[in-house]
Amino acid sequence: NVRALQRQIEALLDYHATVFDAARLQRRRVPLRELLQSCVDAQRLQLQARGLSAAVEAPARPVTLDPDKLRVALDNLLANAIAYSPQGGRIRLAGALAGGVLTIDCVDEGPGVDAADAERIFEPFVQGVRRPSAGAPGSGIGLSIVRELVAAQGGRVFLVPAPAGAHFRMELPDEN
Fold first, then answer.
1. Which of 16, 68, 92, 122 has the most neighbouring CB atoms within 10 Å?
2. Phi and psi dihedrals of 149, rounded to 5?
3. Is the pTM of this model over 0.90?
4. For 120, which DSSP code?
5. Long-range contacts: 144-147, Cβ < 8 Å, 24+?
6. How far apart, in Å, do the first and last CA atoms of the chain sit?
7. C-alpha–C-alpha distance, residues 125 and 169, integer Å
8. Residue 62: CB partners within 8 Å, gap ≥ 6?
9. DSSP state of 116
């Protein structure tokens, strides 16, 4: 119980530090495909351990954003996708630019998010009824961190209805 409480306290401190830091943006131009690929590469060992594959689909065109904060958001989405994907599953990270909007989708083949959880899943410490297929359940702050970091850049993140798996979408303003 003490260890569980300690993990919750650390998660709360981490969440508040992220929210505080989210307002300090350092925007710069970065190639979109390279940014997405670097996030997948950072999770390569976890992907291999679960026998998962990850595909990146995005134009090489530069986008202007805070790449460090977006990496943290993407790392959280990818970590969830890895945890919830079945052994041997596939994860897709796709970026697109259209009409002044950068869209980034993270799609997995896991159990998806239960409809009852869809509205609350981005709130701090909310964990859905469906549990990850690998490892211990997380702290419940990953998606709230994603929401804060994306909102700080003038964007939004939401769950896209999908017949199977989880499909998260980030929409950010494209200033190019």
1. 122
2. -70, -35
3. no
4. T
5. 144/15, 145/14, 145/15, 145/18, 145/72, 145/73, 145/76, 146/73, 146/76, 146/77, 146/122, 146/170, 147/122
6. 50
7. 20
8. 29, 30, 31, 32, 176
9. T
| pLDDT higher than threshold 60 for residue 83 | yes
Q: What is the pLDDT of residues 25-61, one digit of tens each?
A: 788 999 999 999 999 999 999 999 999 999 999 999 9
CA dihedral 123, 128, 133, 134 (to 10 degrees): 30
Report residue 25 as tokens.
């943006």
Name the residue type at position 98: A
On whether the CB atoms of residues 26 and 64 are closer than 8 A, the answer is no
At residue 74, the 3 state secondary structure works out as: helix
Backbone φ/ψ region at 83: left (φ over 0), alpha (ψ -120 to 50), beta: alpha
In 3-state terms, what secondary structure has residue 8? helix
**What single string gives the DSSP state of each residue in 19-46?**
HHHHTS---EEEEHHHHHHHHHHHTHHH
Question: Residue 104 is inside which H or E element, if any?
Answer: strand 101-107
Find the largest Cα–Cα distance for the chain.
50
Closest CA to 36 of 95, 79, 80, 83: 95
